[in-house]
What we know:
It contains six helices and 13 strands. It is an alpha/beta fold. The longest helix is centred in the N-terminal third of the chain and has 15 residues, at 35-49.
Amino acid sequence: MKTVVALKIVPDDQDIQMFADGSLDYSKAKSVVSAYDLNAIEAAAQLAATNEGSVVVAVTVGPASIDDSKLKKNVLARGADELFMAADDAYANMDAHATAEALSALIGKVGAYDLILCGDGSADNYSQQVDVQLAAKLGLPVVNAATKITAKGAVLEVERTLEDAVEVVEVPLPAIVSVSPDIALPRIPGMKDILAAGKKPMNVVGADVAPACTLETVSCLAPKQADRKQEILEASADGAIMQFAAALRASL
Length: 252
C-alpha cells in the first residue's frame, strides 16, 4: 500500500506574539508541522507497519520559507519514506480552496497511490475543508473523523467516532481519509531516526499553478483579553460550591 500524507507547515503558536492593536506578529515564530498532521503521519506509519511492502509519502505546499533542512528531516524522521514539497512564495497565504489545488498538482508528481491521509484540520485556520476540496479535485471518496483505519484488500475499513455514536464504514481505494487526533500518538524521533531521515528522498519543486483564493481575509486579530475577577471562594463556606458552579455556567 502506498499512503500519501498531506501536511501543512505552520508558525509555532508558542512563538506568536500580539501587537497592541490585536494583530499577530509571526516574525519570531519558527515553522513546524501542524500538530493535527503529526497524528496523520503516525497513523500512516502504523498502517504501513501492518502491511508489508507499504510506503509512506509526505506532501506539503507553502511559501519558500518552508524549504528548511531541519524541518524536512523532522517529517521524514516520523515514519515517512519520501517527501514531496512545493516551496514557492506563490503558495503563501492560501485558503482551503487554493491549498487543495496546489496539493492536487503536487500529488500528481507522486505517481500511483492507494490512500491519502489528512489531519483533522490545520493548527492555524482549522477550516476542516482541505480534505473534502482535495477529494473533489481528484475525484475520490472522502471519509472524515477517523479514529481507526484498517486495510482490507481493495477497501479500507474506517471507524468514525462521532458525538453520539461510533460508525464503521468501508470505502473503496483510492480514497482520502482525514483522521482525528485520537487515532495515534505522534512518535518522538530518536537520533537514529533523524540520521536515517537525512538519507531519504526529498523532492522540492516550485509552484506549478498559481491558485486563486476564494476566501478574502479582512483581518485576523487576537481576541481581547477579559479582566480576571480574581474571586477566591473558601471551600468550607456555605454555598461556595453552588456559587462556583453558577460562575462556571455564567462563563459558558
